[in-house]
Amino acid sequence: MTKQHETAPADSMRVDKWLWVARFFKTRSLAKAAIEGGKVHHQGERVKVSKEIRAGMELTIQQGFDKKTVVVVALSGTRGSAPIAQQLYEETVVSVARRELIATQRKMNNLARPDHRPNKKDRRQIGKFKQENDQHYDEYWSYQDGV
């Protein structure tokens, strides 16, 4: 006889398992590492791996550049597809707006990059520009000449 997993929703479950079921992390060990690394908070405090969470709790989860604040809507004993996993939580409106703002700022910072590395002529122009606009440039070179 095969062992059947219980799929009935529980009233509480471990935070590492919920993060895995809600598809924030690919494995439970990655969820555990994130929790131990201080990437998951509840009410501004770091959580432990064995913390029991319930529906209605608010978690702050940091993944790379993204920091999401989500409210636990439901608990599930099994990991399902992505659309099912997205029904387990709701991201707060403030969190969505903050993430979009930070993403646009990152994109704008990337636009400020030059298209290519400076060649010899460009480097000379940069040096000339720095020399003309640096107030301490003359003091530095006069100090170096005196030594």
Search tags:
2 domains, 44% helix, five-stranded antiparallel β-sheet, 147 residues, 17% strand, disordered N terminus, alpha+beta, 6 helices, elongated, Structural Genomics Hypothetical 15.5 Kd Protein In mrcA-pckA Intergenic Region, Chain A, two-stranded antiparallel sheet
What do these coordinates show?
β2 and β3 form a beta hairpin. The strands form 2 sheets. The protein has a 5-stranded antiparallel beta sheet with strand order 3-2-5-6-7. The chain has a two-stranded antiparallel ribbon with strand order 1-4. The protein is of the alpha+beta class and 147 residues long. The model is unreliable at 1-8 (pLDDT under 50). The protein has 6 helices and 7 strands, in the order βααβββββαβααα. The N and C termini lie far apart (89 Å). It holds the Pfam family S4. Belongs to the HSP15 family.
Provide a concise account of the structure shown.
The protein is built from 6 helices and 7 strands. With 147 residues, the chain is α+β, with helices and mostly antiparallel strands. The protein folds into 2 domains: 99 residues, Structural Genomics Hypothetical 15.5 Kd Protein In mrcA-pckA Intergenic Region, Chain A (Roll), CATH 3.10.290; 25 residues, no CATH class.
The radius of gyration over CA amounts to 26 Å
Strand-pairing-aware structural class? alpha+beta
| SSE pattern | EHHEEEEEHEHHH
Count of runs of 4 or more consecutive helical residues:
6
Distance between the termini: 89 Å
For the record, the CATH architecture of the largest domain stands as Roll
Q: What are the SSEs and their pairings?
A:
Layout: E1 13-14, H1 15-21, H2 28-36, E2 40-42, E3 45-46, E4 52-53, E5 58-63, E6 66-72, H3 82-86, E7 89-91, H4 93-111, H5 120-133, H6 137-146
Antiparallel strand pairs: 1-4, 2-3, 2-5, 5-6, 6-7
Keywords: DNA-binding, RNA-binding
Family: Belongs to the HSP15 family.
Biased composition (Basic residues): 118-127
